[in-house]
Write a structure and sequence with these properties.
Blueprint lengths: L6 H8 L3 H15 L1 E7 L2 E2 L10 E4 L3 H11 L4 E6 H15 L2 E4 L8 E3 L1 H13 L3
Parallel strand pairs: 3-5
Antiparallel strand pairs: 1-2, 1-4, 5-6
Helix pairs in contact: 2-5, 4-5
Amino acid sequence: MPYWMNPRQYESVLALSSADRSSHFVGKVADWQQLWGVKNEEGWLVPITPDDLEYFPVWPHPEYAQTIVDEHFPGHHAVEISLDEFLSHWLPTFEGDGVKVAVFPNKEWVFWVMEPKDLEQCLRDELALYE
């Protein structure tokens, strides 16, 4: 179950810069042990930029994912991914396939692009703070 947030909090976080949203993402995901991707009946959303960069968008809360993706990719829905599965399966797969991670796209579809191994390190560093 995702954390609770009010509308003011929602808007304040979306107004952050890409780098600050990325930091927010890492903290929330480490704390709540879950993140959100989006998919439709054909599979997970993995857009490709005009310069052939494949990326997997992720959010720290399903409300961000659903609201933002409804505007840019109608027909997709937010799906929870456990942090453990993301670290053990998803990120190594992305690394092997050359897929980048789009951390926390906002309403304008602006996001922080990270290499899978770099995001893994950020998440593991944040998790170490909880030990």
